[in-house]
Design goal:
With 348 residues, this protein is α/β, with parallel strands linked by helices. The chain is 29% helix and 23% strand. Bound molecules: coenzyme A. InterPro entries: ACP_syn_III_C, ACP_syn_III_N, FabH, Thiolase-like.
């Protein structure tokens, strides 16, 4: 028995933060950001929106567009690095907001690899035979932990969420073998130093802005390229596939130069590599499901997809999947966007 994706939903906030706007607040330029990262703009949630709102909007988009009974969903896995609260779980809030009355839910934090980790856990739950319908969400409100005075990080991140429904199939479509990796020695290179049990929020942390994301960009960049390239090759080998048999690559969207370097190392044509970083930036747990959502019409029955991620921890991984039969679609696809406000200002 295999686990297969049968429905997809996504959500990004309507407010756009452009490179131009960022260049008015920190010492950078529109050209530098686009050339060094591939990002043109990113979406930013308003101060009344939390990660659970992004996640439940993505789930609502899924239910609006596919014929699925929400009461049949048995479990909800929420991958996020920006939970609504340290305690209670974001998944509990999402279960309630999304009317998943018969599902249990829990959060998973593996930073930018969170969705891939959760997908693997969800697939294993389905393949065990104990569960038939699971929703896996990747959702992050990165604007809640980004320092908009730090040009090393504020150019990179955005907010968003994507959701997939996993179901069982007797066919050979669906998730194949996955490789997940973790190396805690990378912790200090990419982290939010304060606000957890190591350094609880204090006057000092607020003064030194250590409650915001910090990263050693160039070091993380090199690690991401090497790790995603190697783990992708390993996942291909584990699934007895050659790069030439891959129809689409869905890479974590952290930097277009990372994506290009990984696809070059795999010798996969850039036309097969899905990219939406130009519009959304790095949405952490949401990049992969947002890519699946954005480009779902391109994926045809039986095509092979390669997903690969890298994130804080370090955490990384890759999987292959054979695209299966999607659930019946409802008449009109709804894309949730309110009025677009290009002049969003992020204030903390
Ligand atoms: N605007 C203008 N100049 C900037 C800048 C910005 N926003 N950010 C850094 N610079 C400067 C640096 O100060 C440095 O100047 P110097 O040469 O005078 O010292 C120069 O640009 C090069 O810095 P470097 O950090 O080597 O740049 P880079 O090419 O590596 O790009 C990142 C920086 C952050 C875009 C890039 O390292 C990156 O994407 N890293 C990985 C990010 C990532 O994947 N994070 C999440 C993992 S999930």
């Amino acid at each position: 028995m295999n686990a297969v994706i049968t429905a997809i939903g996504g959500f990004v906030p309507s407010s756009i933060l452009t490179n131009k706007k960022i260049s008015e607040t920190v010492d950078t330029s529109e050209e530098w950001i686009e050339k060094r990262t591939g990002i043109k703009e990113r979406r930013i949630a308003d101060c009344n929106t939390a990660t659970s709102d992004l996640a439940s909007a993505a789930i609502e988009n899924l239910f609006e567009n596919y014929n699925v009974d929400r009461l049949e969903v048995e479990a909800l896995l929420v991958a996020t690095a920006t939970p609504d609260h340290i305690l209670a779980p974001t998944a509990s809030i999402v279960c309630e907001k999304s009317g998943l009355a018969n599902a249990f839910g829990f959060d998973m934090n593996a930073a930018c690899s969170g969705f891939l980790y959760a997908l693997e856990m969800g697939a294993n739950m389905i393949e065990s035979g104990r569960y038939s319908k699971i929703i896996v969400v990747g959702a992050d409100k990165m604007s809640s932990i980004v320092d908009y005075e730090d040009r090393n990080t504020c150019i990179l991140f955005g907010d968003g969420a994507g959701a997939v429904l996993l179901e069982k199939t007797e066919s050979d479509n669906g998730l194949m073998k996955t490789i997940l990796k973790t190396d805690g020695s990378g912790t200090s290179s990419l982290l939010v130093p304060s606000g957890g049990s190591r350094n609880p929020t204090s006057m000092q942390s607020l003064l030194h802005r250590t409650n915001y994301l910090k990263q050693e960009g160039a070091f993380v960049f090199k690690k991401a390229v090497a790790s995603m390239s190697q783990v992708s090759q390993d996942a291909l080998a584990k699934n007895e596939l050659h790069a030439a048999q891959i129809d689409w690559v869905i890479p974590h969207q952290a930097n277009l130069r990372i994506i290009n370097a990984v696809s070059e190392s795999l010798n996969i044509d850039s036309e097969k590599v899905k990219v939406n970083i130009d519009r959304y930036g790095n949405t952490t747990s949401a990049t992969v499901p947002l890519c699946l959502w954005d480009f779902k019409e391109d994926f045809k029955l039986g095509q092979n997809l390669l997903i690969t991620t890298f994130g804080a921890g370090f955490s990384w991984g890759a999987t292959c999947l054979k695209w299966g039969v999607m659930r019946e679609k409802k008449a009109v696809e709804t894309i949730k966007t309110d009025t677009v406000n290009e002049n969003v200002l992020v204030a903390h």
